[in-house]
Design goal:
This protein is α+β, with helices and mostly antiparallel strands. The protein has a single domain, classed as Jelly Rolls (Sandwich), CATH 2.60.120. It is built from ten helices and 17 strands. Strands 1, 2, 3, 6, 7, 11, 12, 15 and 17 form a nine-stranded mixed β-sheet that branches. A four-stranded antiparallel β-sheet has the order 10-16-13-14, with no helix packed on it. Strands 4-5 form a two-stranded antiparallel sheet. InterPro entries: IPNS-like_FE2OG_OXY (IPR044861), IPNS-like_sf (IPR027443). This is Isopenicillin N synthase-like Fe(2+) 2OG dioxygenase domain-containing protein.
Length: about 350
């Protein structure tokens, strides 16, 4: 899938001509017929080096002993803080294909930023736990630096989404400001991901499917992605290009069962819209199903990536706007658990998220 990147300088611009161009790009990317992904380039100087440093930390983290990793696991927080592998389910099957590390890049202790705590969703308020091993010494610094930068760009993209929605829905649309929801949120989560090679004792392992990560929609408001890095036989692939054409991020077409591979270079970020934005916009913005495919020919290939999930606070109400047709606004691709079964009138971000996580785990 060929995608044109927007300059970060244009994304933060308020020049009318530039804004009009960005609004067109938002509609093309996130509208009902778009691919669901928007690229941004011209990032800060040194970004590519910081990305590699973060990914080196991810590989060091994934290589820690079982006892060391167990110290970073928090089942009482639904594994939404710290490390996990084989704890998440897709279609009822434990996912051993990837390991992940969650933390909040914006607030080390989110509870200190809030006047009222989220008693039902305490993982949103829980403090970060960073690995202390020398091999992982730089994880915290680069995790925070990149996560905060993605959040800054993401808020500007949310601003353009608001302008696009105002034009589409009109002044009487009664839509909340996505920008404001993200600006005041303490619920952001960064996720550092390590996808393990499909080998065991040196031999390829037969899998029931070819997915590193199964098809899903992000259920937050906006997700920022760093370009993945690949390692073959434990050696970094320096070009940034995956040596196996099958492996990597794939996005499902909205109008068919055909998926397209999405690749973007290390000097770019990719942004995807989430189901929270789809609901709040009445379907004017649409989440797109996506998955990460395993390699077909290079079984020793591993993958490292970073995602920044931007979401409103869990106590924020999640109403459909008055103009919305639920049949249209909650439309979901057949490969995804139906929004009609996951969304209920009166939902908050927290209750919708909890029901969504449960649906994917069943």
């Amino acid at each position: 899938m060929a995608l044109r990147a927007l300059s970060s300088l244009d994304v933060v611009s308020e020049e009318p001509a530039v804004v009009n161009e960005i609004l067109h790009a938002v509609e093309q990317a996130f509208g009902p017929h778009g691919p669901g992904v928007l690229l941004v380039d011209n990032l800060y100087e040194g970004f590519e080096n910081d990305r590699l440093c973060l990914f080196q930390g991810a590989r060091a983290l994934a290589s820690l002993s079982e006892d060391e990793l167990n110290e970073l696991e928090f089942p009482e927080l639904q594994y939404a803080v710290g490390w996990s592998r084989g704890r998440e389910k897709f279609s009822g099957v434990l996912d051993l294909n990837k390991g992940s590390f969650y933390a909040n890049p914006l607030h080390d202790d989110p509870a200190k930023k809030r006047t009222r705590l989220h008693k039902k969703y305490k993982h949103y308020d829980y403090k970060n736990y960073w690995p202390q091993q020398p091999s992982c010494a730089n994880v915290e610094m680069y995790f925070k630096k990149i996560g905060r930068y993605i959040n800054q760009i993401g808020i500007h993209i949310a601003r353009h989404c608001d302008l696009y929605l105002q034009r589409k829905a009109g002044e009487g649309g009664n839509l909340p400001s996505l920008t404001d929801l993200l600006r005041v949120s303490t619920a952001a989560k960064g996720r550092l991901l390590h996808y393990f090679p499909n080998v065991e004792n040196g031999s390829p392992v037969r899998k029931d499917n070819d997915l590193w990560c199964a098809y899903h929609n992000d259920h937050g408001l906006l997700t920022g992605l760093v370009s993945a890095s690949y390692y073959e036989d434990d050696k970094h692939v320096p070009t940034g290009k995956c040596p196996d054409d099958a492996a990597g991020l794939h996005i499902m077409s909205r109008d068919s069962d055909r998926a397209q591979k999405v690749s973007f270079p290390p000097h770019c970020l990719a942004f995807q819209i989430g189901e929270t934005a789809q609901i709040l916009s009445g379907g004017l913005l649409r989440a797109a199903p996506h998955a990460v495919m395993m390699p077909k020919d290079v079984s020793s290939l591993s993958r490292v990536s970073f995602a920044m999930f931007m979401s409103p606070n869990p106590d924020v109400s999640l109403p459909l706007p008055p103009f919305a047709d639920p049949e249209n606004a909650l439309e979901t691709h057949p490969c995804i658990p139906s929004l009609f079964e996951r969304y209920e009138t009166g939902d908050t971000v927290g209750s919708f998220s909890a029901r969504t996580i449960k649906a994917y785990n069943e």
